[in-house]
Design brief:
The complex is a heterodimer of chains A (176) and B (555). With 176 residues, chain A is α+β, with helices and mostly antiparallel strands. Chain A is 31% helix and 39% strand. The two termini of chain A are 22 Å apart. Classes of the chains: A alpha+beta (176), B alpha/beta (555).
């Protein structure tokens, strides 16, 4: 087996009910190890965009792309690792913040350029946007104060410059 | 023109050239069956069970190359299709399955005979649809046929809600969507030609893709130019005629001795439309063992999935062979001469001592030449593949990938309706007990077929594995049924015959085939064979080709 890495796969899929089931069903039955899955609407009402973080080796990566490519509802697919891309994720975290901790947390959030979006007597909700590694780092620092709950959106990714997913040929043409 | 959804369905099927449908009516498809009745242009074959209908549509598709169509009602009707759909999916057979479902207002409320058949069949179809609005119906049906037939073929299911069947909508006739032409990467083809030209001992493995692409003629030309042996997979049986001087029989777990030796001795393996399943590659990591592997397939996801390839070309087999033929140099016959010596020295090509061999060889001689042969799953399937010569593509039908016991009767009915020819069914007594209900269909519909019931009173293949791998502990493989199959056949209105001794084979089979042909009716031949006949040679699962077993030590 080759080296296990994290791969980011982008796909444009039909914006129809059942598409997510089809794709997640494929992952489950072929045993692909998915770390996160983000789905959203796009500028085209008929198309959704999906970003998948896969943990696996190159064999799994190519199998997953090729198997996904065969699905009728998958229109375009590509691996972001091959391109120079911007990765962003948004996180909301509700942290314990009594009067004593509050100032320290505010200092931390200044450094990470997070925002305070809610404040109560002993809690605070912070919002942070950035690449996934930055979010991880922020979490590590904020964790000792006591995290009450948190949510991350999953990764969104776009390639820099002229590249767009919809202008790609069918992926199969690329790897042949 | 305004018409009801059910009538749109029938008209769209006619657009696609559908002449035969296999199915079973029920509450949620009453409107569809009413439209079928009123239209009267499509022949509907009522089976005994929906699974039989799905297998019949599959057999029809395999025998003709056209898309097979089956109908079933909602709920249990739909779930009964599942095994048939999965069978077609694993063997890349074009099928359109139409099911009814409850109306939109009832959907999702656990209504009577409601089941989420699109959810259930998602992993076993190329694609499936639930049609909730009559405006989408015609386009969905046309897309379904296109998807079933394009690229790597496969089954598509359309679930049509009751309200869609009765709702009215404008219908404009349309032609079937033309299949897309594949662009072939010429530099990849050239690269393969270079390797093939420099090969000393090339071996061609012909898979089901040769048959679905209709590439047999090109394959023959290709093999002649290379002067190379052609081994076929179970799905590729018939891609090259058994008996062709370059054909060395089946490859894989129960492949011929020559094919096995050829795999070992070859320096380049050219796999055409074959997916290196575990029954062919056996040990996927050691299969190639330093040889070059050239893989041609229409499905991009097959490359490097099981066996790592040296070169591959994404193309239908006919397109590839057409493109590569002019680039190839004529090779001499030295390698093929060597291959022909493999069998010498008392080594068995296949086991010729067993009763199954004698019966199938005789049947092969007596059956009308080139007529469909449908094998079920198990020992008899392998024997049929080894002993019953297939002379043309689409002659030998069997469930290869899924290995569906109970496949043969339905499939043979479909093959008969597709070709109008008498079919031979090779079925074990285990399998026959799973689909014997369809004998009634064959009688009612006047289907000419000879059923060779290889009756050994055991589940032979599982028993053979218990012999080899489980210390002869025959757990639940002894059937020992008291069924009198001759009387059974007669009670269904079919002809029943029996072979108990070797000297009866010829005369009973002569009677069986002439009766079936003359009366246009099914004949069942209860062939009594020993429970200890084995399928040989054999390579154990996951083993390498040099470990082929020719004889069982246990016997």
């Amino acid at each position: 087996m080759d080296e296990i890495k994290k791969y980011t796969i982008g796909a444009l899929v039909s914006n129809k009910s059942g598409v997510l089931t089809r794709i997640s069903g494929l992952f489950a039955r072929r045993g692909y190890n998915i770390e996160s899955l983000t789905v959203c609407a796009t500028e085209d009402p008929e198309i959704s965009r999906m970003t998948v973080i896969l943990k696996g080796d190159e064999y799994v990566l190519y199998q997953m792309i090729k198997q996904m490519d065969k699905l009728e509802d998958v229109k375009k697919i590509g691996c972001a690792n091959e391109l120079d891309c911007v990765y962003r994720e948004l996180m909301l975290v509700k942290v314990k913040a009594d009067a004593e901790a509050r100032n320290q947390i505010v200092q931390i959030k200044e450094i990470y350029k997070a925002k305070v979006v809610d404040l109560s007597i002993d809690t605070m909700i912070l919002e942070l946007t950035g690449d996934p590694e930055k979010l991880d780092a922020f979490m590590a620092v904020i964790e000792p104060y006591g995290i009450l709950e948190m949510q991350r959106t999953g990764v969104t990714v776009l390639a820099r410059g002229q590249h767009t997913l919809k202008d790609r040929d069918c992926y199969s043409d690329h790897i042949n | 023109m305004k018409m009801k959804g059910a009538d749109i369905l029938i008209n769209c099927l006619l657009e696609q050239g559908v002449d035969t449908i296999f199915g079973y009516p029920g509450g949620a498809v009453l409107d569809i069956y009413d439209a079928l009745y009123r239209n009267g242009k499509i022949n509907h074959i009522l089976t005994a069970h929906e699974q039989g209908a799905a297998h019949a549509a599959d057999g029809y598709a395999r025998a003709t190359g056209k898309v097979g169509v089956c109908f079933a009602t909602s709920g249990p009707g739909a779930t009964n299709l599942v095994t048939g759909i999965a069978t077609a999916f694993m063997d890349s057979i074009p099928l359109v399955a139409v099911t009814g479902n409850v109306g939109l207002s009832m959907l999702g409320r656990d209504s009577f005979q409601e089941v989420d058949i699109t959810g259930i069949t998602m992993p076993i179809t190329k694609h499936n649809y639930i049609v909730k609005d009559v405006k989408d119906l015609a386009e969905t049906i046309r897309r379904a046929f296109y998807i079933a037939n394009s690229g790597r073929k496969g089954p598509v299911l359309i679930d049509i809600l009751k309200n869609v069947q009765v709702a009215e909508c404008d219908y404009e006739p349309a032609k079937p969507y033309p299949l897309k032409e594949f662009d072939i990467n010429m530099s990849a083809v050239e690269a393969t030609a270079e390797v093939i030209n420099s090969a000393k001992r090339p071996l061609i493995i012909a898979g089901g893709g040769v048959i679905s692409a209709g590439a047999s003629e090109y394959l023959k030309e290709f093999a002649k130019k290379l002067n190379a042996p052609v081994a076929y997979t179970l799905m590729g049986k018939g891609a090259i005629a058994d008996g062709d001087p370059l054909c060395i029989g089946m490859v894989g777990m129960h492949g011929t001795f020559t094919a096995t030796k050829a795999v070992i001795s070859s320096d380049v393996i050219i796999a055409l439309g074959s997916r290196f399943s575990d029954r062919v590659a056996l040990n996927r990591d050691l299969f190639a063992n330093g040889k070059k592997v050239i893989h041609i397939d229409i499905d991009n996801a097959e490359f490097d999935k099981n066996v790592k390839t040296t070169l591959h070309v994404l193309a239908s087999i006919d397109a590839y062979l057409k493109a590569v033929l002019p680039l190839l140099e004529q090779k001499d016959g030295a390698w093929m001469d060597e291959v022909l010596t493999f069998e010498q020295g008392g080594r068995l090509k296949v086991d010729t001592s067993i009763m199954a061999y004698k019966i199938l060889k005789a049947a092969c001689r007596i059956a009308p030449e080139g007529n469909p042969v449908v094998a079920d799953v198990g020992q008899h399937q392998m024997w049929a593949a080894q002993y019953f010569a297939a002379l043309r593509p689409r002659q030998f039908l069997t469930s290869g990938g899924l290995g569906t016991m109970g496949y043969s009767m339905g499939a043979a009915i479909g093959a008969c309706f597709g070709t109008g020819k008498l079919a031979t069914v090779v079925v074990g007594d285990g399998c026959f007990n799973m689909n014997m209900n369809e004998l009634s269909t064959a009688v009612t519909q006047g289907v000419p077929m000879v059923i060779l019931l290889m009756n050994n009173s055991v589940l032979g293949m599982v028993r053979q594995w218990q012999k080899i791998f489980y210390g002869r502990r025959f757990s639940q493989t002894t059937l020992d049924k008291k069924t009198d199959y001759v009387a059974f056949a007669e009670s269904f209105g079919a002809k029943g015959l029996r072979i108990e001794r070797e000297d009866e084979i010829e005369s009973v089979l002569e009677t069986a085939y002439s009766y079936a042909a003359e009366k246009c009716a099914p004949v069942l031949v209860d062939c009594r064979i020993s429970c200890d006949e084995n399928v040989l040679p054999m390579i154990k699962p996951g083993a390498t080709y040099d470990t082929q077993i020719e004889k069982m030590e246990e016997n």
